[in-house]
Amino acid sequence: MLGGLIAQTQRRRTVLRYQQALCPSCRSRWPSNTDWQKHLTSTAYDRWSRVWSLARYTNRAIYRTALALLDERHRTVLDVGCGTGLMSSMLAAQGRRVVGVDLSAAMIARAKRHSGSSVTFLEADAESLPIATGSFDAVVNLISLHHYPDPSRAVAEFRRVLRPGGRLVLIAFDRNSHYIALAQRTNRWTKRIAGVSWQKTSAEVQSLLKSAGFTRIAIRPVRYWIKTFAVVAE
Asked: Measured between alpha carbons, how far is 200 from 197 in angstroms, rounded to an integer?
């Protein structure tokens, strides 16, 4: 009984969260495009959280690449788009102080259960991080940027929370990948979840980073079955 009431209250809160605009014809409330996109993404990943731990195998090359791009200067790390905390736990195992952030409540719940007290996890929006300015030596963002309706705002947030001289490690699929191009053309579900802009090229990401104030930017390929690149920016 109590569990049902709590679930019902949570559903009402979710509906209210996305009721921010009025339909011009019927005047009923509907979510803004941006918030609706975030809602679609977070609820999809809520469902996928049950199997997301398999990424420790499928995304192994991505995790290894990210770890190799950090050094002893990067003792405090913010993992944005942390999912179930796989990367966050790997970072913590190296003795780093780690905070993981994700928009999916279910992902964060599983991350907390699996990682124990070694990592702090927050349910939060990458475009509005609840983090103090200049708090981290490094920010890690792995295969997540394409989900953000306003990637320039997210990148600006990455820059804001970094200390002077801090490092951003960002890994993304390349839109020029044949697989990405095919999925975007043919899969309506992919478009619905990933957003209208979906993946970007390395040049587009580099432009976003420059606009956010990063001055030292290096791009390198990642060996993965989908065309993928890593960006190191300071």
From this structure: 8
Domain 52-233 coded CATH 3.30.230.80: no
- Look at residues 222, 200, 221 and name the one whose alpha carbon lies nearest to residue 209: 200
Domain boundaries, the chain: 1-31, 52-233
Distance CA 64, CA 13 (A): 39
User: What span, in angstroms and rounded, lies between the C-alpha atoms of 132 and 151?
Assistant: 20
Residue 79 Cα distances to 110, 122, 204, 205, angstroms: 15, 10, 22, 18
Answer yes or no: are the C-beta atoms of 216 and 233 closer than 8 Å: yes
Residue 118: band (very low, low, confident or very high) from pLDDT cuts 50, 70, 90: confident
8 A C-beta contact, residue 146 and residue 203: no
Amino acid at site 106: A
What's this model's pTM, rounded to 2 decimal places?
Answer: 0.80
Please report the DSSP string for 49-63 in residue order.
Answer: TTTGGGHHHHTHHHH
d(CA 183, CA 142): 20
Query: Residue 123: CB partners within 8 Å, gap ≥ 6?
Result: 101, 102, 103, 104, 105, 108
